[in-house]
Every structure is written in C-alpha cells, then in structure tokens.
Specification:
The protein is an all-alpha fold. It folds into 3 domains: 412 residues, Na+/H+ antiporter like fold; 57 residues; 50 residues. It is 77% helix and 0% strand. Helix 3 packs parallel to helix 12.
C-alpha cells in the first residue's frame, strides 16, 4: 500500500510542478529534476530500485517513438548539414572532451569507462529546449534543427556508449570487432525498423477500438525495441525507422475518433515516463551519496561532477561556434565572389542559442542507470556510482542553468519566428477544402449547399491576403465557440432538470465537444 500511495503522491507532485513550470515559462523537466533531487534526501522517501537493463527500454522507447512519429522527413532533408554536425561532431567532441577530462582527474579510470561517461552526458534532450522555444517563437529552422538533433543524437551517443560498455565487459574490443558491430548496428537497425513497419502493419490497420489500439501500439513499441536489442541491433535506430515509416504510411487509415484520444494518451504517457525517470534516478542519489566516503572521496566526486558539467557545456559551445564561424566565412566568400558584397551576415545570435540549448534529460539518466552493477567476473562495475552522480549533475545543472535562462536569452537576442507553418497551413486548407468542394459541387441537396457555403468561406479566408488569422481559427471560430458554450450549458441544465437522461446527455455533449474542436477549441491559451 505504501508504494501505491507514493506513486499517487509523485504523479500529483509532477503534475503540479509541470503546471508551475508553464506558469513561469520554464521547461517542466527543470522543475522535475529539482524535485527528484530534493526527494532523494527526504528521510521517509521510498528506496525503489529498477533493473538496469529495463531502464532504457522503459523510459526511452515510448518517448523516442512519440518524437519520431512527429518528425518531418522534409525538415530533416533541408537541415541535414547542421543536424549531422550536431549528431556526429558535437556528440563526438563532447565524448572526447569529457573522457580526456575525467582521465586527467582520475588517471586510474580505464579509458572505456571514461568514454562511456562521455557518451552518457553527450546527447542533449531538446524536449526541454523546444518547450521554451515554442513559447518565445524561435525561428522555425532553428527549432527543427534542435528537434532533428534530439531524435538522432541519442543513437550516435548510445552507439559509442554501447561499444564502450562492451569493451569494459569483454576486456578488449579491437577494430576487427568494432567495424562489423558498427555497420550491423547502423544499417541493420534502419533496415529492421522499416521491415518491422511493413510486417506489423496488418496488426494495426484493422483496429477500430481505442483501448485495443493503444495496447497493441505500446506492445509493438516495446516489442520492436526488445527484439532489436536481443539480436544485437540498436533499439533507438530501429525504433526511429519504424516510427517514421508507420507515420508516413499509416496516417490516413486511422479515423478521427481514434486519433484524438490516442494522441492524448501518448502525450500523457511521455509526461509520466519523464516524471518517473527523474524521480527514480533522484532516489538513487541518496544511496550513492551514502556510499561515497566522507571527506576527500566525497569532495573529489563532487568536484569531478562539477567539472564534467562545465566541460559538457563548453564542448557544445566549441563545436557550434566553430561550425557557425566556418559556414559564415564560406557564405561571405561566396557572396563576395558572386555579388561583390562583402558585408558580414549576422550569425552570433542563433549560434549562441543553439549552443545554450544543450540541456540533458531522460536519455542521459536512463543510460547512466542502465550500466550493469557487476562485470562478468562478478566484481563491481568500476566507478558506477561516480558515473551516476556525474550524469545527474549534468542533467540537473543544464536544466536549471540553461533551462531557466534560455527563454530570456532568446528574447534578449531578438530572434523571431517568421511562421512558415501558418503559411503552409493556409495553403493546405485552401487545397484540401477545395478538393472537398469539388467532391460535392454537383449535389443540389440543402446539406450540400450549406457545406459549400461553409467550406467556401474557409477557402476564401485562407487564400485572401487581406485576412491574417490564427492558423487554429476558422470562419466565425470565436462566435462558434461562444455559441457552443451556451449550448453545452443548456445541455447541463436539461440533465439537471431530468428533461434528458445521462445517456442522451453524453451523446449531445460529445457532439458539442467535437464541434468546439473543429471551431479551433483545441488552441492552448
């Protein structure tokens, strides 16, 4: 019973912290990290443990699939150069910088262990960054670069992490063993993900009940990850390829009455997993802290964690600013040759924001916790407690230091969004509703005439340059929502007065809810 009570308390606390984060304009992982760290030192807090092999599967797989499902292939293609630089070079720079730093601080630490630590803290979690950036309307291209990086940098960092852990466990991993593992992991995982999407499609295409569809989706998510890991592939790459293929090929088959609740459930699950990841990792701090000896050993561990945090932030700055300077110089050289205009182009603002957006999150925590407790010979994994402490210090430090300041930094630099999404939404509406009008143009019924008037107004509104409206609004949207609110209140009164029963009331309210959503009621104020 105590465990159940603590789960309820933690969920409620996470929800309240997330609401507070939205009110103050901070990413909710920042406050969750602070809450998890504080909980670790509450005397009455539970002492839960989680199987290290389960950590990545439980915490990363659903979150990754949710992100990959919403990823735009077009945006990845358009921004592949900066994304590739962040995914490969920035991650590599961080791994090398952290590994050399901890080896300098702790010369007796084996190189594979130092590299594993570097790989754990290397991948930024852009979920926290984008949560703030959407509030301050960062330029769309910069937002897409961060989202693309967050999707793929986990794979590159965890590939290095996996090879480093294999080396620690095996004692040695030469190039002859490394090359096949690398090639099989990358290309085999991508092929397996695409193949799984086609093979498993019949299991989901015929489902028309939300609870059954959700159970199947979650089962397949974990199943694809577990199967990939079991045969030596990358669960991350496999799941990314699987989710993106499913999103591109199966979207039109899902009816609206399923899509809305399914997306809402996935959003809730992602939030719950993030909350529990921070809480469970935070709970490990107390036993780690207690195991560290008082005096020099504990002080040295704190110093090492602080230095790793500083190096992690500095390494991303070093790569991003160097890359921006190089591309800036190349662009100016090209402009000078073609036009004779040698005026410098402003690049500092976006580069600073991109550098400062390197907040760490759930992947770093889960990867650190997934380190096995013992080696194959039964001896403890070297420096596991120190790695866990460094990982949580980097997550907490970046979320607090960068998460609470990136919003004011963006506003200070004056970066704004030109809102290309709104333009594309208007274009899409004009074409989609134009096709709808063509489909009913020969129908002379009263219903068809009413529809032609309504959807004709939508086409006119979205093709006229004189009308600048919100992308989530429709003709008469505010008026419709006010009228629907009155109708819903009347439905409540009729049920209260026993004019209609509860069954009829639920049907009527559901109709009004869908009407409100179609009138722009899904907009978040």
């Amino acid at each position: 019973m105590a465990t159940f009570e603590w789960i309820i308390i933690l969920l409620l606390g996470a929800a309240l912290l997330a609401a507070l984060a939205r009110k103050v304009g901070a990413p909710y992982p920042t406050l969750l990290a602070l809450g998890g760290a504080a909980l670790a030192f509450v005397p009455a807090s539970p002492n839960w443990t989680l199987d290290p092999e389960l950590a990545l599967t439980l915490f990363v797989a659903p979150v990754l699939l949710d992100a990959a499902y919403d990823t735009s292939l077009r945006d990845l293609r358009l921004n592949w150069r900066p994304i590739a630089g962040l995914v490969i070079a920035a991650v590599g720079t961080t791994v090398v910088a952290v590994a050399f730093t901890v080896r300098w601080l702790i010369p007796e630490m084996p190189w594979p262990v130092a590299i594993a630590l570097g790989a754990i803290v290397a991948p930024p979690d852009a979920a926290a960054a984008t949560a703030v950036m959407r509030q301050v309307k960062l330029p769309h291209k910069l937002l897409k670069i961060l989202e693309g990086e967050s999707l793929l940098n986990d794979a590159s960092a965890l590939l290095v992490y996996r090879l480093a852990i294999m080396t620690v466990l095996a004692g040695h991993l030469g190039f002859a063993s490394f090359a096949p593992v690398f090639l099989l992991t990358v290309f085999g995982s991508l092929a397996a993900g695409v193949g799984c999407a086609f093979v498993l499609r019949p299991l989901t295409s015929g489902l028309r009940e939300v609870p059954i569809a959700l159970i199947v989706q979650f089962s397949l998510t974990f199943g694809v990850w577990i199967a990939a890991e079991a045969i030596g592939l990358s669960g991350i790459l496999t799941l990314v390829a699987y989710a993106m293929t499913v999103a591109r090929r199966g979207g039109t088959q899902m009816p609206a009455h399923m899509r809305v609740p399914i997306f809402a459930v996935w959003e809730t699950v992602v939030f719950v997993l993030n909350a529990f990841a921070f809480v469970l990792i935070g709970m490990q701090l107390r036993p780690i802290w207690e195991r560290l000896e008082t005096g020099g050993s504990r002080t040295d561990a704190m110093v090492t964690a602080a230095v790793v945090l500083a190096v992690t932030i500095a390494a991303r700055f070093a790569w991003v600013m160097s890359y921006k300077a190089l591309t800036h110089r190349r662009a100016n050289s090209t402009s000078t040759v073609e036009t004779g205009d040698a005026r410098p182009r402003p690049v500092v603002g976006s580069a600073v924001v991109l550098s400062w957006a390197g907040m760490r999150g759930i992947v770093t925590l889960a990867a650190a916790f997934a380190i096995p407790e013992t080696l194959t010979n039964g001896s403890p994994f070297p420096y596991r407690d120190l790695i866990l402490l460094c990982a949580f210090a980097v997550v907490l430090g970046t979320l607090v230091l960068q998460g609470l300041t990136i919003g004011p930094l963006i506003r200070r630099l004056g970066l704004t969004d030109d809102d290309p999404v709104a333009r594309e939404v208007r274009l899409g509406r004009a074409h989609a509703y134009g096709a709808l009008l063509d489909a009913i143009k020969d129908d002379d019924t009263l219903s068809a005439k009413l529809l032609r008037k309504e959807y004709g107004a939508i086409v006119e509104l979205n093709t006229s340059e004189a009308h600048e409206v919100r992308i989530d609004d429709v003709p008469g949207g505010p008026l419709r929502r006010r009228a629907i609110a009155v109708a819903r209140q009347r439905a409540f009164e009729m049920r209260r007065d026993d004019v209609i029963g509860d069954d009829a009331f639920r049907v009527l309210v559901q109709e009004l809810d869908w009407a409100e959503l179609s009138a722009g009621g899904a907009r978040r104020d």
